[in-house]
Amino acid sequence: MITKALFIFLTFLAIFFALRVVSTKNPIHSVLYLVLTFFAIAGHYILLNAQFLAVVHIIVYAGAIMVLFLFVIMLLNLNKETEPHKSVWLKSSAVVASGLLLVVLVGALRGAEAIQTTNTFNSNIGLIENLGMTLFNEFLLPFELASILLLAAMVGAVMLGKKSIK
Amino acid sequence: MEWNFLIYKAILVLIVFSITLLVATYSTYMERKVAAFLQDRIGPDRAGPFGILQPLADAVKMFMKEEMIPSVSNKVLFIIGPGLCMLTACMTGVIIPWGKSINIGGVDYPMQIADVNIGILYLFGVLSLGVYGIMIGGWASNNKYSLLGAIRASSQMISYEVAMGISIIALVMVTGTLSTGEIAAQQTTWHWNVLYQPLGCLIFIICAFAETNRAPFDLPECETELVGGYHTEYSSMKLGLFLFAEYINMFISSAVISTFYFGGYNMPLIGRWVQDPNWLAILGFVFLFMKIVGFIFFFMWVRWTLPRFRYDQLMNLGWKILIPLSILNMVLTGAWMMRHEIMAYFGK
């Protein structure tokens, strides 16, 4: 009962903050609402008993990535005057395209059947011991490949950041 | 039973919260006294005996001062900034094991609010949010110096979080758990983690200094360059909250250092004289507090001894010295733990 109430509350918050992200004029407010959205989603993870995912979600997204976003926006000092004006044509075509996307998504969701779970759900799968065992036994190769991807991105960023390449 | 549990937890939260605030308040007094001692002065001695009421006088002064909000600033965010700083500072006390459990009438009452199995990660999560209060406050002031201070603070905290995280990974490898209660419980008698992780401990302490924005890493509020740093535009109790949050952070950092590396509530040899578990638990609490006060003194000692770094020196220390050192520490710890396997491999 209380789980369901929390779920509805968190969902409401997540959707409300997500709408505020796109509807506020000030980019700093946008970023801060996005941080709040991440918190609501982390709450959903905790409801699913995935504590590790929830905390890592907060550390990585709210704690690191959004801080960098905030950093860049503050340094660029974006506000209404510096925002480039888009023509009416561009705006209306964006409205039409996203409206069509909404229709497609709603149609796809209505047509989908309820998912049948084939294997029994282990409610402790999100705890850190189980997650570590799964990640380092069953999914070792994808895990290592993902780390190589991140390393490549890091090396690329350092190369781009260098002043001159001899 | 359920209600008992809730009431007990609520009381514990209240106690930890008030102790945190009390210690932070008296840290300001201790700071003045330590500074006076190191500079061969007397320090505050007017309010009460030995100036013991000085923090109260400071608090009254902070509350009574005129409240100024710059007209060009973003009002809502300007007010949220210091509040957020306080909030994140107070949130970390939850996972610190303040002592062993006390047994009253056959029921165990642990002296830890929440022993979650991801305690260290929770600590990191809250720590990484701590930067928001400073950034929002600095930006909302609409002042160049405040913005520069806020940006310095955030880049400094992000940079030192990396080295801190890697040094903690080595600790987690040694202890094999992410729960803070378990880490404290493992360090019985002299098995303190500092003996197993000396380099990791050193890196962690340096990073703790940088995370709390204390000297010699107090560049975000560097008076000579930035007027007052991120809190230049703040006055009255909003300024007070920023300063107070720093003292709470210092207290919590000392508690975390004591718990992770210096045995927490454990003390060698005490089991010989005291057998009663309840007395042991209370003594453990006292020992933890002695360690915490020791580390707070260490924080102050460093502040009044070392000059401030230059900003490029700070970044060099963080990225070019501490991170490689912490990675080396992690690799060495891993090699030591796998030494039998490695020996067997080369012995063949």
Task: Characterise this structure.
The complex is a heterodimer of chains A (166) and B (348). Chain A is an all-alpha fold and 166 residues long. Chain A folds into two domains: 1-79, Four Helix Bundle (Hemerythrin (Met), subunit A), CATH 1.20.120; 127-166. In chain A, 75% of the residues lie in helices and 0% in strands. Chain A contains six helices and no strands. Chain A has helices at 2-23, 27-47, 51-76, 88-111, 128-137, 140-161. The mean pLDDT of chain A is 83. Chain B is mainly alpha-helical and 348 residues long. Chain B contains 14 helices and two strands. A two-stranded antiparallel sheet of chain B has the order 1-2. The N and C termini of chain B lie far apart (60 Å). Classes of the chains: A mainly alpha (166), B mainly alpha (348).
List the main descriptive attributes of the protein structure presented here.
heterodimer, A: 166 residues, Four Helix Bundle (Hemerythrin (Met), subunit A), 2 domains, B: 348 residues, mainly alpha, 2 strands, globular
Architecture blueprint of SSEs:
The complex is a heterodimer of chains A (166) and B (348).
Chain A: H1 2-23, H2 27-47, H3 51-76, H4 88-111, H5 128-137, H6 140-161
Chain B: H1 2-38, H2 54-64, H3 75-91, E1 102-104, E2 107-109, H4 119-140, H5 144-175, H6 180-186, H7 193-196, H8 198-211, H9 223-226, H10 236-261, H11 270-273, H12 277-303, H13 311-337, H14 339-347
Antiparallel strand pairs in B: 1-2
Helix pairs in contact in B: 1-10, 1-12, 2-10, 3-4, 3-10, 4-5, 5-8, 5-13, 8-10, 8-13, 10-12
Superfamily (CATH H level) name of the largest domain in chain A: NADH-ubiquinone/plastoquinone oxidoreductase chain 6, subunit NuoJ
Largest interface (C-beta under 8 Å): A-B, 20 and 24 residues
Termini gap of chain A = 65 Å
Name the assembly state.
Answer: heterodimer
Q: Would you state the CATH class of the largest domain in chain A?
A: Mainly Alpha
Uncertain spans of chain A: none
Please give the alpha-carbon distance between the first and last residues of chain B. 60 Å
- SSE order of chain B, one letter for each helix or strand: HHHEEHHHHHHHHHHH
Q: Based on DSSP secondary structure assignment, what is the total number of beta strands of chain B? A: 2
Helicity of chain A, in percent?
Answer: over 70%
Task: Name the average pLDDT of chain B.
Answer: 82
Gyration radius from CA atoms of chain A, angstroms = 21 Å
Shape estimate of chain A = globular
Strand adjacency order, main sheet of chain B: 1-2
**Helical region count of chain B?**
14
Beta fraction of chain A: under 5%
Mean pLDDT of chain A: 83
Radius of gyration of chain B: 22 Å
Strand proportion of chain B: under 5%
